[in-house]
Amino acid sequence: MQRQLQDQGGEARGAAATRHGLAAGDAGRPERADWTIDQGWERYTAEDHGVWKTLFERQTALLPGRACDAYVDGMRRLPIGADAIPDFRRLSDVLMQRTGWQVVAVPGLVPDEVFFDHLAHRRFPAGHFIRKPHELDYLEEPDVFHDVFGHVPMLMNPVIADYIQAYGEGGLRAQRLGYLPNLARVYWYTVEFGLLRQRDGLRLYGAGIASSYTESVFALDSASPNRLRFDLERVMRTHYRIDDFQETYFVLDDFDELLELARIDFAPLYARLQAGPEHGPGEVLATDTVVTRGDGSYHRARRADATPRGAST
Ligand SMILES: [Fe+2]
What we know:
The chain is 42% helix and 10% strand. It is α/β, with parallel strands linked by helices. The chain has one domain (41-303): Orthogonal Bundle (Phenylalanine Hydroxylase). Strand 1 (102-106), helix 4 (112-120) and strand 2 form a beta-alpha-beta unit. Helix 6 (158-177) packs antiparallel against helix 7 and helix 6 runs parallel beside helix 11.
């Protein structure tokens, strides 16, 4: 998920701001310069495969009618099943034939420039570890379930495959120009938390939603969040939540919109961003095309919960 790539101006700030991962030089840095490691598939334990099976089965039961057709189609063609954590070599064989992508194992979060360089070369860095049985809904770093179950089916789609490669190339440029937080919002609101309007209704395609038991329901079924028509500049100006469900989801009508993004020269856009406003994660603007206006009830209740007891007395 690259959740640690944070929105510097957002509500949620942290020590790892603007990073896709660990600082270079941190303990545990792998020997290879590109941070890849062997997946070590043979070393997964029965407990590891059992966690995968639990996550796979409960998520697979939720996704019909919620995941977009491209996700369902990608998943069907891949060697991903309930009984075992997928072997990245087998995934890569199928992906390579279809869209020229491969899955490479990394120990966890990696530095931004390493992450972007992998994407620019059609390598998806996936965490090789899996969460513990008592932490099914808790993720400190993207694990193999989020990265494989959430991301890899969409990499089977040729448009998404090109888009994510372009994002990697754009990320290296944005980092040089100082606009990485703005570009990161595009990744966040598309690759991680994007919705698509299909002929038969709203569907999810973002990996952060597809791999989450609770957010796959919240994003589509809850009355709380806003669902707004995707607009590139609007998204680049919009902060996001890293600590909870999103307050707003952006909706595409067609994946081809993303392909257009891959062709856009962002330099004039970055110049405009310097002058204009920034928007909070729950704001709805007069200029937005609203798909559904949220009532904000979920996050309002969460904020009330966070109020210190006795604060008003
Ligand atoms: Fe992700």
